[in-house]
Amino acid sequence: MQHPLLPDPNLVWTSALDVLETELGPAEVDGWLRGAELLSMDQGLAKISVPTALHFERIRDRHLPSLCQALGVQNCVLEVTELDLEQTLPPEDLLPTSSGPDSTSLTPANGGTALEAEPEIEAEPLLLNQEYVFDTFVVGPCNRFAHAAAHGVADRPGDAFNPLFLHGSVGLGKTHLMQSIAHRLRRNNPKVRIAFLSCEEFINHFVGSLQQGSISHFRDRYRKVDVLIVDDIQMLSNKQRTQEEFFHTFNALRAAQKQIILSSDAPPGEIPNLQERLVSRFKWGLVAEIETPCFETRVAILNRKADRIGIDLPDPISHFIAEHVDRNVRELEGTLTHLHALSQLNGLPISLPLARQALGSERNAKMQRIIRMDDILQCVIAHFGVRLADLQSKRRTQSIVYPRQVAMFLARSLTDHSLEEIGGHFGGRDHSTVVYAIEKMERRRRVDGDFASLLVELDRKIRNGES
User: Fold this and answer.
1) pTM score, whole prediction
2) What single DSSP character describes residue 114?
3) Does a cis peptide bond (omega within 30 degrees of 0) precede residue 163?
4) Residue 250 carries which DSSP code?
5) Which tens digit of pLDDT belongs to each residue from 290-319?
6) What one-character DSSP code corresponds to residue 82?
């Protein structure tokens, strides 16, 4: 019986999850934390029961500091409820890498009692950005074909363009188009069953189903939808068992004339270590590239964004920004957001000098220093108090992964290095790992004002040569 003076663990746990949803997002909390249970809290120590070894590793490696903070404790001990921890696990390439000894423990809870009922994996909620619709997508020569293809799929799902495979570099609008399709399908048919997820989520759900012995539930989850949308499909690279499962899921959906929509940073034939039969199937429908926007399209994107946030953007300023930010839409919109913030915080009108400040280019562009990878690494190392060897190691503790991902994000925005070259500076990581890090940091930047400010500050220091 719960002592009347001690907090109810269920209430404490529910409150902690509410806090974590804001920081981590509903999908992450629902997928990895919702099934856990707070057993006890005493003298700064919380004991938490998690359903599988996979949950244990995910929470330990990615969320332990946040979890302790949300619970208001110094340490958390994770205990696994699985009966047989020596069961056959998926191949090593599917499992998270252990980060070595830490404060957590891997022991069966409740005497290792087996779960009486097989837990069914719940479908992910369809979380769509309300701004990512066709009406807000700026069409230009760089994306006209992909935009037309997306319209065709939204109007006639399962017809000619199946699968629709969108590819292009980071931040060019692939996710915007995919979400636009989902919005249109929902508007046309509110009962349509759509599974929209990242490839990483697909991999994690597959691993979880193997761990829990619930593969039939996993297959029902993805083979009984009307539309399957998977972002960053290049992350299937080297995941042989997941590729096998996706192959059969793909076949089942296409045979049932259900729509499949995929995105990648590379065309199907250039995704490394992808089975030939998958490459062939990805080419069955329509492969559409989204290219870097031309100057006129960049100006149009800036003007559309300015209208949405309610600011007056004179042509000389939009042209100046478009001339200096030419790699992707996210950087373009991010620069405008930064300019607007500088104007609001300092009570200054939007002007060319303020735009130069937002770009970090107060000096003449021709005189601007070339930013090297060493400049970024030194700044990140100094700010986070980590070692270069840690950033380049295989360690996956949150204290190392976080600054490593920040450094990758900054490298992509401040240098001309390719994804492979950036990965090479961090222990030889492949391009899919770099893409994941960049997109994760971008998602956080959009919802976390403090984090966005940190990126702006690090960007400023690197541009100015400060350590």
Assistant:
1) 0.52
2) P
3) yes
4) H
5) 888 888 888 888 888 888 878 888 888 888
6) -
